Amino acid sequence: MTQLPAPGATPAAPPPAEPLPTTTPARPRWRETLGLLARNPTAAVSATVLVLIVLVAVFDETLAPYGPNEQDPSLQLQPPSRDHPFGTDEFGRDVFSRVILGAGTSLRVGFLSVAFALVVGTLIGLVAGYYGRWVDDTLMRLMDVLFAFPAVLLAIAIVAIRGAGPANAILAIGIVYVPIFARVTRASVLGVREEVYVRASRSVGASDWRLITRHVLPNAAPPIIVQTSVSLAFAVLAEAALSFLGLGPRRPNPSWGLMLADGRGFIEQAWWYAVFPGLAIVVTVLCFNLLGDGLRDVLDPRQRTLMAGGGR
């Protein structure tokens, strides 16, 4: 039985209210991803080096101390010096300047060819994985036909038919990598399309376009991002191979692969002629591969949880 207070007595003060728990807003996913990537020393260093290489390619004409075809016959095949850090070639041209100017050509071909493969391959993989059945069978059998040819041989065949040049090299390398993006995207979409949130959106009448753009593609993106980084490495290598065979940019335009081909005849008497363009290719390809490994760890849910919890 509750005891009533005596008349005229002061009522007891109510107990103090418990303070509401303070919550910090969640960090955006992209910012969290960058933070985790920065905690991976290998990926962070690779990304930094790639940023520097891209800046060199963008501002190549400003950074190059000499023109790409500026010749001095009195300086033929000179070893590295203060005026020419990478030495000179058989025409007296500065190898350092040509390596800088060749970065723009090699990276331009690599980025544009991967962009072409990314758009076309992702679209094919999305349609095949989402709709399935005969659409999936038809598109994937077409991709299998392209997979039946060795990558470099197919690129050489395309360039041989269409002719040498940067534009045809971009098209050839892009076609080679379309099936890879299509398969990666399809595999990721097959795992996403039956998720609960996709079926819930479909049950309330969401259109296919909305499901693909708002739910399927964003959640299928991590493997595609990793594949993009890895493909950039192989695209730069493929451009160098085509240029080495004379199927890429034409002389006298500087290109890493073309410089490597020109320098192989002087490897005994002028090692720097071929070594420095080769090092540029090796460093660029290695950094793209290491960055791809870091992205794979960061975007993988299990590895992401371990890294966020300090487990790695």
From TrEMBL:
Predominant localisation class: membrane
Pfam families hit by this protein: BPD_transp_1 (PF00528), OppC_N (PF12911)
UniProt keyword Membrane present: yes
Annotated family: Belongs to the binding-protein-dependent transport system permease family.
Record localization: Cell membrane
Domain ABC transmembrane type-1: 103-292
Gene3D superfamilies: MetI-like (1.10.3720.10)
UniProt keyword annotations, A-Z: Cell membrane, Membrane, Transmembrane, Transmembrane helix, Transport
Annotated GO CC locations: plasma membrane
Domain of life: Bacteria
Name of the protein this chain belongs to: Peptide/nickel transport system permease protein
Membrane topology: Multi-pass membrane protein
GO BP terms: transmembrane transport
Annotated segments matching region Disordered: 1-27
Transmembrane segments: 37-59, 109-130, 142-161, 167-184, 224-250, 270-292
